[in-house]
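Exam revision sheet. Question 4 asks you to relate a sequence to its structure. Input first:
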Amino acid sequence: MFSNKNLLYIISLFVFINCHGQHAINHKDPAEIIEQKEQLSLNKDYSTLGDLIYTIDFQVKTDNVNDYEDGFIPWIQLEKPEADMANLHNKDEIVLNNSSVEILIDYPLNKEYKFTITSEKGFTREQLLHAISKQYYILYEEEENSASVKTVPLEKRTTMYNRNETDGKYGIWGHDIADLVLSSILVYRSNNGKTILALQIES
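Answer key, structure tokens:
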């Protein structure tokens, strides 16, 4: 005889299989998610910040002319900028005459991060680079402290080399600080006269 107990068991088994099957269907490949986020980042429109005034480039002198024909690497690392600082092209040039600027960091973040720096004599490339690198370390630490999903250590990443996405204050995805380089800064002037810097970060 078919008992109620057996019926409940079959129903429970069906629900279990169906839920897990549905989960498998909806599950996205982390590498695919990163690729989608990278594409969105490349196509990001900063026109809402105001008028684009000019661009500040960062180039590092190198002897490796096989890979860099003009003798310059078109970016500088953020993890240890002091390692390349001696070879940073025009590092002491005043590239911003402002006494205060706002800097926008949005890569690789789900929620953007803004901070302000001040200087009575304007800003050089070296000053900007140090300030940006320092803030990246701060926000990565804040992310880790506020996240329930922690960063998987590099040596424990088995299926994907990239940093896993965490769910902290900024939602950092895809990259450790060691992956990030600064190629240029877009300088915008807002409607109220504020100078806002949008970073061109690559990985």
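Marking note for examiners. Confidence is low (pLDDT under 50) at residues 4-26.
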